[in-house]
């Protein structure tokens, strides 16, 4: 059973940047497809970005494409999301998610597809 711990959240002004990290333990990290999701107050949790097991492919929601970059370092059991040009509407709790991927090039974008979740880290963007 993999455990996920997010870090790197905080308060930032609009236009600023943050890098979130998600450290995994208890599993074989390179067998997991990884994703980032977020949930703003009063809203449903939504997909942000995902990355294949080997980091070879990524996928983004339209709302963050071009501003956020997901990456992973399998040797460190860690996935990241670099968030640039942040907007107040990016304010949310950000969650890291993992799910075992049978195929090295598979990617998942629905929260229903992910079995393992972190506790989340708060990102607040002030205007």
Oligomer: single chain
Helix/strand-derived category reads: mainly beta
> Can you tell me the overall shape?
globular
Helix-strand pattern: EEEEEEEEEEE
Termini separation comes to 40 Å
* Rounded average pLDDT: 97
Number of helices: 0
What does the radius of gyration come to?
A: 13 Å
Helix share of residues? under 10%
Summarize the structure.
With 127 residues, this protein is mainly beta.
Topology of this protein?
Layout: E1 3-7, E2 10-13, E3 18-25, E4 32-39, E5 46-51, E6 58-60, E7 68-73, E8 78-83, E9 92-100, E10 116-117, E11 121-126
Parallel strand pairs: 2-11
Antiparallel strand pairs: 1-3, 3-8, 4-5, 4-9, 5-6, 7-8, 9-10, 9-11
How would you portray this structure in words?
The protein has 127 residues and is mainly beta. The chain is built from no helices and eleven strands. The strands form two sheets. Strands 2, 4, 5, 6, 9, 10 and 11 form a seven-stranded mixed sheet that branches. A four-stranded antiparallel sheet has the order 1-3-8-7, with no helix packed on it. It is globular and about 40 Å long. It starts with a strand and ends with a strand. The model has no long low-confidence stretch (mean pLDDT 97).
């Amino acid at each position: 059973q993999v455990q996920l711990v997010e870090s790197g959240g905080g308060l930032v002004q609009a236009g600023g940047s943050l890098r979130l990290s998600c450290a995994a333990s208890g599993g074989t990290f390179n067998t997991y497809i990884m994703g980032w999701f977020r949930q703003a107050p009063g809203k449903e949790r939504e997909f942000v970005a995902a990355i294949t097991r080997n980091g070879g492919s990524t996928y983004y929601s339209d709302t963050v494409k071009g501003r956020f970059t997901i990456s992973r370092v399998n040797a460190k059991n860690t996935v990241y999301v670099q968030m640039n040009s942040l907007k107040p509407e990016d304010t949310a709790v950000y969650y890291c998610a993992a799910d075992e991927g049978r195929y090295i090039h598979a990617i998942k974008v629905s929260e229903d597809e992910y079995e393992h979740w972190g506790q989340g880290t708060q990102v607040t963007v002030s205007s």
